[in-house]
Structures are given as structure tokens and as C-alpha cells.
Design goal:
The complex is a heterodimer of chains A (about 375) and B (about 200).
Chain A: E1 2-11, E2 14-20, E3 24-29, H1 36-48, E4 68-76, E5 79-87, E6 94-97, E7 100-102, E8 114-117, H2 122-126, H3 129-143, H4 146-173, H5 184-220, E9 227-232, H6 242-263, E10 274-279, E11 282-283, H7 290-310, E12 316-320, H8 328-338, E13 343-348, E14 361-366, E15 369-372
Chain B: H1 4-14, H2 21-33, H3 36-52, E1 54-55, E2 62-63, H4 69-72, E3 80-84, H5 87-96, E4 102-105, H6 123-131, E5 137-140, H7 146-159, E6 165-168, H8 184-192, E7 195-196
Parallel strand pairs in B: 3-4, 3-5, 5-6
Antiparallel strand pairs in B: 1-2, 6-7
The complex binds adenosine-5'-triphosphate, magnesium ion and zinc ion.
């Protein structure tokens, strides 16, 4: 799969930009702040309907404009598909696939498969568990778009259940007595139902991903391996299979009942889990060096890329500002590792940072323009 | 801000569901420039709807008499009762022509985020209807949303011990959707393929 062209209107710093990419390596060069990341962020948005940098859509729309439009042509198996997204903060995104408008923007998920590694990904290693859950769930959705629905359903049930607990908690506090918990059992059942589906999928994903992470870390760190991942659930050891998980979740909810009532919030479920990262015998968080942490984050993205490729559709790989962080040996090894991607987009501020054998198409950015150099 | 009456009108229109401030302003100025007779018809319709329309004392569908047309119809079966969230869902289901039983309109769905629990819905009235023993099957036709599903589960737990068959509309309805917006064919199929819960 590759992106043939990207057309932006009022996205980030660009009033208008049209870029024609090539299959194979594409290098985007330009000074800090020129708009390199803005370009790849737009592609990331098409793939995930969210930005890798900001949680809300407002910063994506050019200051002074009301709507940003991203249009891109994706080539897969010799067929070209147009995807168009209109982003208007505070409103639902509008989307088109091919010529037809789609009712929900969610329907464009799956049209562009892409793995993006960016400096922000250091938080995959250093940040809260929420960052790693997001990594897992995004990969889940990239492999099977229907999990976007599972996640949305789970989140909605969780919100409703929390609202119920919270109301009961507050009523109890002011001694209003009427703690209406008659529907709690219903929310339990639905939380467990959606939670077990999500949990089963995450466990399966982790098992499939683990060897790819070890391999990718080895490759980047030149044999200084020992990178491992493992799903961490507050429930402890988890049974395989959805039915077992459902029972275990339900039992855990029962056990946590009093604590939940005391605190007015849901304390059990996949929204509390984490992805454990270790290097040899030590956890990465709090122990690993800057370079090791960086390499681990990179390994997580490369592993995602490998896994998606093994599923049969080769995703587009984007490395934003990666080479500048690596020493010469690691740069070369990374170039060898990713050079064969069906499409690779690399950004850098300093021309010489990208190894010579990655020179495919080359673009220079400046004055709000993207110029093809060769 | 405008002065007096026009701003009052904009404010009132803006409180209606689905009407934003811009639309409210556009409607207000449309009314201002419209024919006096047209506006009179609208305001009469508004008055009459509050005067004449009430809820059916049996099923809580909207009606202009004590009982709604469906509850009064002797040809319909008393064996099967279909539970929906709103009156508009009755209209949507009637259009399919698949259902010849009676309805019960809950007036919403369980939604803790909006402070709506079972006591805020017409669930007690539903239980009273079921208590008479004539209903053999209860069809749960709440929306296929998180809240609609929760309401269906709640009712299923409540009703099943009474020995009444409880069914749920077959999936195929768009998840997160509104019954009202499902087309007749999809909704009709969902009725045929309903499953026991
Ligand atoms: N909504 C917006 N409207 C206008 N300009 C914006 C908007 N969002 C970001 N920018 C501008 O875009 C620029 C950042 O672009 P970008 O992050 O793509 O830079 P970059 O080329 O990746 O730089 P670096 O090499 O430092 O990573 C900043 O100058 C910022 O002010
Ligand atoms: Mg950048
Ligand atoms: Zn009636």
C-alpha cells in the first residue's frame, strides 16, 4: 500500500498543499518548524481519525480558518482509493470514500494502513499506562476496524456505570438515602460483556506482538536484546478465551463492589490495565537509559509494522525525526531494516542525518511550500 | 443581542432539540417576514398540541383521546407487547406492517449520565400491565444504543421470572443507531428474526 498524493486545505500551517509521493522511500527535509510533522500528522489522521500530537481537533485547523480538509489518494493492489476528511472542531467529521460520502467518519478506518513513529512516542515507554493501552487499541483497530466499535461501546458503558456510582456516592454523602443502584447489575453485565471482548483481543494481540518486539529491538540495538512485553491486568493471571474472562471480570467486580461504592468509580476492567515493558530482568520505566527507552519505543512501532505486514497488507511506514536521535551504527541498521518498505516517509531537519541508501524521492520544505527536488 | 420580542423568540427556538443559535436566528427572521396567516397557523398548532395531545393511559403513546388508536383497535392481539423508548418508534414499527400486537412506550431509556433511572420511565406501569397475565410475549424494541441495550437487559431480568417469553429485536440494526432512522425493510427483518433473551 502507498499514498500517491496528499492534498491539504487549511490543515495546521498549510492554507493549501499538494504533495505527490512515490512508492519506496520519500525523504522530507526542512528546518525546524517548517511543517514536516504537519504533513505526516495529516496522514496519521486519515489512518486513525486522531492526531498523534493533540487530543482535540482545534489545533489541526489553520489559525483563522474554520474547517481543515485532508484528501489523499491511496494505492493498494493497483487500485486507487480517494479518502477525504473535513475536520470542523466541535462537530462530527465529514468523510468521503471514493466518490461517496459515508455516514460515519469511522467508516474510513482501514482505508489507509499506516505506522507512524514520532518523538512523542517516547511516552509509550515513559508515560502513563493510558499511552500503552492506546497503542494496543489503535493496533487492534488497524488490524480489525470493528474494534473501534467495541472500544466505543466499552467506553460508553463505563461512563454510564461511573455516572451511576458517582450519583449513588454523592447521594450517600449528603445522606439523601435514595441511592438508586437498581441498575448496577445491568451495567455490570454490559461492562463485563464488552470488557471480555476487548480483553481477549488485547491478550491475543500481545501474544502475537511479543516476538516482533524482541526482534525489532534486537535489530535496532544490534544484539543488545532482551526486550519483552507482557499484558498486565489488575485481575492477575487471566484465563484464555472470552467466557473465562467474562467470569473472572464479573467475579472481580463483585469483590470490588464495596470499594467502588466507597469511591464512586469503576475500579475493575480493561481500562485499568497496562502493557509491561522489560529489558532483561528490569522494567524499562524508571530503569532504562534515554537511548534504550527511545529504541524500545521505536521497537514497539516497528513491531506493529511487522505484524500488520504479516497480516497481508503492507502498511505505509512513517519515521518522523528518528534518525537524528540515533548514532551512525543504529542509523544504518534502521535504514537496512526499513529500506524495503512498500512506502516509507522520513522527515529530518538536517540533510546528512538520513543514510545515503534511503534516498528515494526527496522533498524540500520552505515558505509553506513542498518542493520535489528529485 | 436583539431587542425584546425577536430575541425572546430566538431564545425559545434555540432551546428546541437540534436547533443551534444560527438556525434559531434564521427561523426567527423567517417568521418575522412570513405571512401573518401562516404564522397564526403555526401558533395555533403549538397551542393545540399542548391542549389536545396527551398520553394514552394504557401504553403512553401520544393520542388525543383517553386511549390511543392502537390500544382501541379490537383486531390487534393482546398476547404480544412491544416495548419502545418513544412514540416515534411506534410510528417506525407500524410502517413495517410486521407487528399486530400492542405497545408500551417507556418515555426514554436508562441513562445515569442524564440522571434517568427506572423510576423515571414507565416501567412500573409496564409491570402492572404484565401482571394481568394476558401477555405471553414481550418484545424489547429499545434502540440498539448502550442505553437502549441496558434498558432491555434491565427489563429482561425483571420480567423473565414472570414466565413471559422475552425477545429482543434481531441485530442488523445499525449499532448506536436510532430505531426511528432504521429503514422499514431492516426494521421489519429485525422483527421477524427477534431472539429470546
Ligand atoms: N493550527 C495551526 N495554524 C497555523 N500554524 C500552525 C498550526 N499548528 C501548527 N502550526 C505551525 O506549524 C509549525 C510546526 O510545524 P511542524 O510541527 O510540522 O514542524 P516540523 O517541520 O516538524 O519541525 P521540527 O523539525 O521542529 O519537528 C509551527 O511553526 C506552528 O506554529
Ligand atoms: Mg517535527
Ligand atoms: Zn395506547
Amino acid at each position: 500500500m502507498y499514498v500517491r498524493s496528499l492534498d491539504l486545505v487549511d490543515f495546521r500551517s498549510y492554507p493549501r498543499a499538494v504533495v505527490e509521493f512515490e512508492p519506496g522511500p520519500n525523504v522530507l527535509v526542512g528546518p525546524n518548524g517548517v511543517g514536516k510533522t504537519n504533513l505526516v500528522e495529516a496522514l496519521g489522521y486519515v489512518a486513525t481519525l486522531s492526531s498523534h500530537r493533540v487530543a482535540t481537533d482545534a489545533p489541526l485547523v489553520r489559525a483563522g480558518a474554520t474547517t481543515a480538509v485532508i484528501r489523499c489518494a491511496i494505492v493498494h493492489d493497483g487500485r486507487e482509493l480517494m479518502v477525504e476528511l473535513a475536520i470542523e472542531p466541535g462537530k462530527a467529521n465529514k468523510a468521503r470514500l471514493g466518490r461517496a460520502p459515508v455516514t460515519r467518519a469511522r467508516d474510513v478506518l482501514g482505508a489507509l494502513r499506516l505506522v507512524l513513529f514520532a518523538p512523542e512516542d517516547l511516552s509509550l515507554v515513559r508515560g502513563d499506562p493510558a499511552e500503552r493501552r492506546r497503542y494496543l487499541d489503535e493496533l487492534l483497530v488497524a488490524r480489525q476496524p470493528r474494534f473501534a466499535g467495541v472500544r466505543a461501546d466499552y467506553d460508553r458503558v463505563l461512563k454510564q456505570r461511573n455516572a451511576l456510582l458517582r450519583t449513588a456516592y454523592l447521594a450517600g454523602k449528603v445522606g439523601a438515602g435514595s441511592r438508586d443502584l437498581s441498575t448496577l447489575e445491568v451495567w455490570d453485565a454490559h461492562l463485563v460483556e464488552h470488557g471480555a471482548i476487548l480483553l481477549a483481543a488485547r491478550l491475543e494481540l500481545c501474544a502475537a506482538l511479543a516476538p516482533h518486539v524482541a526482534k525489532a529491538y534486537d535489530a535496532v540495538a544490534a544484539g543488545g536484546g532482551g526486550a519483552a512485553i507482557g499484558y498486565r491486568s489488575a485481575l492477575g493471571d487471566l484465563p484464555a478465551g472470552r467466557d473465562g474472562l467474562r467470569d473472572q471480570l464479573l467475579a472481580a467486580l463483585r469483590d470490588a463492589r464495596q470499594a467502588e461504592l466507597d469511591r464512586g468509580v469503576t475500579l475493575v476492567g480493561p481500562h485499568r490495565d497496562d502493557l509491561g515493558l522489560t529489558l532483561g530482568p528490569l522494567p524499562v520505566k524508571g530503569y532504562a537509559s534515554h537511548g534504550e527507552s527511545w529504541s524500545f519505543a521505536l521497537a514497539l512501532r516497528l513491531a506493529a509494522y511487522d505484524l500488520l505486514r504479516a497480516d497481508g497488507i503492507e502498511p505505509v511506514l512513517i519515521l518522523d525525526d528518528v534518525f537524528a536521535e540515533l548514532d551512525t551504527g543504529r542509523r544504518q541498521r534502521l535504514a537496512d531494516l526499513v529500506g524495503g518498505a512498500s512506502q516509507l516517509l522520513v522527515t529530518c531537519a538536517v540533510d546528512g542525518d538520513v543514510p545515503a541508501d534511503l534516498r528515494g524521492a526527496r522533498f524540500e520544505l520552505g515558505d509553506g511550500e513542498v518542493r520535489r527536488v528529485h | 443581542m436583539y431587542e425584546g420580542a425577536i430575541q425572546d423568540l430566538i431564545d425559545e427556538l434555540g432551546r428546541l432539540p437540534g436547533v443551534g443559535p444560527k438556525s434559531a436566528q434564521r427561523i426567527a427572521f423567517y417568521l418575522l417576514s412570513a405571512d401573518a396567516a401562516d404564522v397564526k397557523r403555526l401558533s395555533t398548532a403549538l397551542d393545540r398540541v399542548k391542549e389536545l395531545v396527551r398520553f394514552c393511559t394504557t401504553c403512553f403513546n401520544v393520542t388525543e383521546s383517553e386511549q390511543c388508536r392502537i390500544c382501541r383497535d379490537p383486531r390487534r392481539s393482546d398476547d404480544v407487547l412491544c416495548v419502545v423508548e418513544e412514540s416515534k418508534d411506534v410510528v417506525a414499527i407500524e410502517k413495517t406492517g410486521e407487528f399486530r400486537g400492542r405497545y408500551h412506550v417507556l418515555g426514554g431509556a436508562i441513562n445515569p449520565l442524564e440522571g434517568i433511572g427506572p423510576d423515571n420511565l414507565r416501567i412500573r406501569e409496564l409491570m402492572a400491565r404484565l401482571g394481568t397475565g394476558t401477555v405471553r410475549e414481550l418484545i424489547l424494541a429499545t434502540d440498539p444504543t448502550t442505553e437502549g441495550e441496558a434498558t432491555a437487559t434491565y427489563l429482561a431480568l425483571l420480567v423473565k421470572p414472570m414466565g413471559i417469553t422475552v425477545t429482543r429485536l434481531a441485530s442488523g440494526l445499525p449499532v448506536g443507531g436510532d430505531l426511528e432512522y432504521a429503514d422499514e425493510i431492516t426494521l421489519g427483518r429485525a422483527f421477524e428474526g427477534r431472539r429470546r433473551v
